[in-house]
Amino acid sequence: MSKFKKKGEGGTPAISTASLPDIVFMLLFFFMVVTVMRDNSLKVQNILPFADQVEKLDKKNLIMYIYAGKPSPRYQETFGTEARIQLNDKYASISDVQQFIKEERLSKREELRDKLTTALKVDKETNMGLVSDIKQELRKAEALKINYTTKQGEASLNLE
Amino acid sequence: MAKRAAPEVNAGSMADIAFLLLIFFLVTTTIETDSGITRKLPPIDDEQEEPPILKERNIFVVLVNSNGDLLVEDEIMEFKNLRQATIDFLDNGGGLGDEACDYCQGPRLTSSSDNPVKAVVSLQNDRKTQYGRYIAVQNELVAAYNVLRDREANRLYNIDFTEMEDAYNDPEFQGDKDKLKERIGVIKELFPQKLSEAEPKR
């Protein structure tokens, strides 16, 4: 009889997975905190043009988004392929822009109202006529700070 | 009656649930922020103000027509040459006397601009111009200004202009913000961004 009993078979002990949920929860909370949900569902085609002389748009709550482009494929049957404007979740006409800007302004706190920027997310195949009309409406609504939202990249990529 | 111990809840599936949530948030996450070319629109004046008279040589007309061709001062130009052409125009410094430009490095032609302060870039487009092309041209024009501003900022303060602006917009910037703002103002005065976006003619 030996005094020292051999312990087990000497194989590697199983790794405890008890802390796995903790790790996963940690990751989960990280992603929950940094998530920004898409608040608009796009109804227009929206391939942004490229540019490299860009400025970042921080402060997401101070931005009004105006989308434009031709309707997405699943709406083309009813709305055709003519480029359209999208405000919030629905198609809009050029005369709705001023009202939209007013409503957006009213929903913000008073001291922030003149810091609002309008981000124009326009599909690169859109004609400038529509964009100019939007710009004209924005001038009338006195929303003069605009940003042509682009993707990061060489500008010459737009010419292809 | 025998006291029954509360049965332990099996926590083995906790990881599965957490994974499910994790994957959901992974898919819906968009971390990147938007970026783009920021511009300011001119306000609409009710009273018809007399537009200031500009000399022909101080206006640089860039037209993108409906076919996407680039016409600079009525001549067709390759897109890749636009940036340099704009720089040459702005940096020409052909003025004399009051209008002289002592920091310009251009050839001082009498046919080009007097002074960057006076020079105006007029970007025109057609109603049928594609937005992508318009943005590409706009980008090149902004790039030309940035090149010149970087040059002056490097000469005066040994730092890129774009770097200064980034630092100024950074909320965590540790340093003298007022001084930085003043420097940015100085550079902006040397090369004011006079980029006019005319309404399309047709």
From TrEMBL, chain A:
One of its GO terms (biological process) is protein transport. The keyword Transport applies. GO terms for molecular function: transmembrane transporter activity. It is a single-pass membrane protein; Single-pass type II membrane protein. The chain crosses the membrane at residues 20-37. It comes from the Bacteria. Keywords: Cell membrane, Membrane, Protein transport, Transmembrane, Transmembrane helix, Transport. It is found in: Cell membrane. One of its GO terms (cellular component) is plasma membrane. InterPro entries: ExbD. It holds the Pfam family ExbD. Belongs to the ExbD/TolR family. This is Biopolymer transport protein ExbD/TolR. It comes from Psychroflexus gondwanensis ACAM 44.
